[in-house]
Amino acid sequence: MDVTVVIPTLNEEEAIGEVVEGFAKRGFRVLVIDGNSKDRTREIAREKGAEVVIQSGKGKGQAVAEAFEIVDSDILVLVDGDGTYLPEEVYRLLEPIKEGGADHVIGNRFASFEKGAFTRLNLIGNKLLNMFFRLAYGVELRDLLSGYRALKKEVYKSVELTKPGFEVETELTVETLAKGFRIVEVPITYRKRGGKTKLNPLRDGFRIGKTIYELMSRYSPARYLYIFGLIFIIAGLISGAFVVYEWFLRITHYLLAILTALFIITGVQLIMFGLIADFIFRSNVEFRKELRRLREAMEVEGKGD
Hints:
By secondary structure, this protein is of the alpha/beta class. It has helices at 16-24, 41-47, 60-70, 90-98, 120-137, 153-156, 168-178, 201-214, 216-219, 221-248, 254-304; strands spanning 3-9, 29-34, 51-54, 75-78, 104-113, 149-152, 183-190. It is 54% helix and 14% strand. A seven-stranded mixed beta sheet has the order 3-2-1-4-6-5-7, with helices on both faces.
C-alpha cells in the first residue's frame, strides 16, 4: 500500500529534521504543510527529504484539510512535527489497516508517555475531555486528541473538516464515526516536545469541549435532543414539586401548573423526536457500512478473476 506521511508545521526547526528523517529513511513519502514558519522549518524539512507546501490559510485544522486535498495515497499518516511521536512506531498504526480491521487508527499516548510530556494541567484537561467525549458519544476512545493517526484514502477523502485550529482531531474522529468507518486505538510512546508549545490549555481546551458538544448534531442528533429534553423535564419536575408543596399549604398556582405540564410534555416530545432521529441516523450508518462491505467484496472477486 502507498503511504504518505503528512506533517503540519509552524516554527518547528528544533525537531522537524529528526521527524522527517525518521520517516524518509523508512521509505515513506513525507509532505510538510507549513503555516508560514518564521524560522528554518521549511529549509530543514527539504534538506531531510520532505516535500514542502506552504499553507494557504491558518491553523492546524486548515493545514490538515489542505493536505487531504493534495494527497492521493492509499493510506495517509498524520503526525506532529514537534518530535513527540516516534517514526518507528508508525507500523503499529498501519498494521490494523493493512490487516483489514480498521479504517482510522489513533495512537494512544496514555499507554506510555515520558515524564514532562504532559504538564499537570494538560494531563487533567485531556482526561476530562476524553471522559466528556465518551459520555456524550458512547464510544470507548481513550485519546481523542492524539496527533498520530493513520487513515485510509476512503476516510480522509470523505470527511468534511471545518474547524481551523486544534479542534481538528475531535472533528476528524467524529466525522469518521458519523460516516460509519471503523476506528481502532493502538498504544504508542509520547515524548516531551521540542520547542515551545502553541497550545493554550484553557482557551483551546474550552474550544475543544465546545466542539465535542457542537458535533453531536453531526454524529448523533438524538443525543443533542436528549439533553434539551432532559432539561425541560427536570425544569418541569422542579416547578411541579413547588406547585404540589404550595397546594398542601392551600396555595394554588394555576399558571405555574400549566407551565409545568408544558415543560414535561415538551421534554418528552424532544426525547421521542431524538429516538426517531437516532433510528434514522443509525440506519443510514449501517447502510453505508453495508455498501462498503459489498464494494470491497466485489473488488476482491474482481481481483480473483
